[in-house]
Automatic annotation (TrEMBL):
Region Disordered, residue ranges: 97-137
Protein keywords: Cell cycle, Cell division, Centromere, Chromosome, DNA damage, DNA repair, DNA-binding, Kinetochore, Mitosis, Nucleus
Principal cellular location given in the protein's record: nucleus
Highest taxon listed in the record's lineage: Eukaryota
Coiled-coil region list: none
Name under which the protein is recorded: Centromere protein S
Compartments where found: Chromosome, Centromere, Kinetochore; Nucleus
Length: 137
């Protein structure tokens, strides 16, 4: 069964969530680097982040649409990150890790269902042998 889609946030709530996340990240940087951010700079960074995310979302949608797909794939994300070698390398690495993990999960499911199937097959054979034995008596 597919997971239910998350309810859409209003643009205001989404903008507020981005602002909250940006402020948290900036606070970590401030503590780590012993600097301070003014409220105006935090608001500007949050707004810039929000607008950049909107641009990324539109670009990803266009990449998928251009490929005649309705689903955004990791290849679309890699294309988006193509100008940043370090980001592209990171996304590629994470994508490969996820693909490898998914393959391992599928293999485990196959082995699990195969061992259950094998066990059922042996139980069925035993039942058939018992009924043949009782027929011969």
């Amino acid at each position: 069964a597919a997971a239910e889609p998350r309810p859409r946030l209003s643009p205001q709530r989404l903008r507020a969530a981005v602002h909250y996340a940006v402020c948290g990240l900036c606070q970590e940087v401030a503590e780590d680097k012993a600097v301070q951010f003014s409220k105006q700079s935090l608001a500007a960074i949050a707004e810039l982040t929000f607008r950049q995310c909107e641009t990324f979302a539109r670009d990803l949608e266009m990449f998928a649409r251009h490929a005649k797909r309705s689903t955004i794939t990791t290849e679309d994300v890699k294309l988006l990150a193509r100008r940043s070698n370090s980001l592209l390398k990171y996304i590629t690495q994470k994508s490969e890790e996820l693909a490898s993990s998914n393959m391992e999960q599928k293999e485990k499911k196959k082995k699990s269902s195969a061992s259950k199937g094998g066990r059922m097959h042996r139980e069925e054979e035993a039942a058939v042998t018992e009924s043949e034995d009782s027929n011969m008596a």
